[in-house]
Design brief:
Layout: H1 3-16, H2 19-26, H3 30-44, E1 49-51, E2 56-58, H4 60-86, E3 92-98, H5 100-117, E4 121-127, E5 141-145, E6 154-161, E7 163-167, H6 169-175, E8 190-192, E9 200-206, E10 209-215, E11 219-221, H7 224-232, E12 238-241, H8 242-251, E13 255-257, E14 266-272, H9 280-292
Parallel strand pairs: 3-4, 3-5, 8-11
Antiparallel strand pairs: 1-2, 5-14, 6-14, 7-12, 7-13, 9-10
């Protein structure tokens, strides 16, 4: 009998715990289901299942064999899915979650080029910082900035962003340019804070070590773009990722300061649940994003101009 089908029947019985349930799922008779297992055991020369009138369980050999069978069937399914994907265009609706700032500043730009290549894919872009169970909530992909807590997902690094302190030329002309971290106490600072009750601090690197500096912001906001606009208009110093303010620095609207104390770059990752059965629409977007975000990213190219 067909060995691959026998493996599928065995895997179904192990998963469902019943010959009848496996037969129904495989659309075969109970007799044929038993025949597949009997043929598989005979060919292996080992009993795979303990069967009584009340209970069905895997033998020690059956348990070890089941683990290998599941891996083999997964590989076969992925190979078949690969062929199917190559035979079909990218179609359907792609649901993507991203932080509001990155989604508005950069992802919306990237989508224009993607849509030109894949016109049959509709995009639903959900902008939120609440990434908990994003895949379980129906997202095909999510884009996250910073450290990842969930190790069960696939994380593809697309780019990185620097954390930069900056201000407008007008503010620095009136108030001077800070040269050391201690100078921040003499300046007007504005800070991100999702919980406005908590104190704000900025991250730096001093003599090779991470350092947090508490600030007393005259303006706090849970929306970074509010601080960015305030800084452009001369209200004070801000510390934000370069993907938010890199283009402002490039245009001269903001000027970087305290560059010697800049902390390590922040990773920007594209997140998806697993590689198995990845649809053409998801694969096409993953591949497009890899090509779109270069290293260094376009928001950081001002740092390398002339070098």
């Amino acid at each position: 009998m067909d060995r691959l089908t026998s493996m599928k029947v065995f895997a179904a019985i192990a998963r469902l715990g019943s010959f009848a349930a496996a037969a129904e799922e495989m659309a075969i008779s109970n007799t044929m289901c038993s025949k597949f297992i009997r043929d598989l055991e005979n060919s292996l020369g080992a009993r795979l299942l303990n069967r009584t009138t009340r209970q069905l369980s895997l033998t020690e050999v059956g348990s070890a064999y089941h683990e290998k069978v599941v891996a083999i069937l997964t590989d076969v399914e992925e190979a078949e899915q690969c062929v199917l994907d190559l035979q079909h265009d990218a179609v359907g609706t792609l649901r993507i979650m991203a932080p509001p700032s990155f989604g508005s500043f950069h992802l919306a730009r990237a989508i224009k080029g993607y849509k030109k290549q894949y016109p049959n894919v509709a995009i639903e872009l959900i902008l939120s910082d609440d990434f908990e169970n994003a895949i379980d909530r129906g997202m095909d992909l999510s884009l996250r900035v910073g450290k990842l807590a969930d190790s069960s997902v696939i994380a593809l690094k697309l780019s990185s962003s620097r954390l930069i302190v900056c201000a407008s030329a007008d503010y620095l002309k009136k108030n001077g340019t800070p040269k050391t971290l201690d100078d921040l106490a003499e300046h007007v600072c504005m800070g991100m804070c999702h919980n406005l009750v908590l104190p704000s601090d900025w991250s730096f690197k001093e003599e090779g070590h991470e350092k947090k500096v508490a600030i007393r912001p005259y303006l706090k906001s849970n929306i970074a773009d509010a601080l960015r606009v305030a800084a452009i208009n001369g209200s004070g110093l801000i510390q934000l990722p370069s993907y938010m303010i890199g283009l402002d620095i490039q245009s001269g609207r903001l000027l970087p300061v305290l560059e010697a104390y800049e902390p390590a770059p922040i990773a920007i990752n594209l997140i998806y649940a697993h590689r198995k059965h990845m649809s053409t629409k998801i694969r096409s977007f993953v591949d497009y994003m890899q090509g779109y975000f270069e290293t260094p990213a376009y928001w950081d190219k001002w740092m390398f101009d002339g070098k």
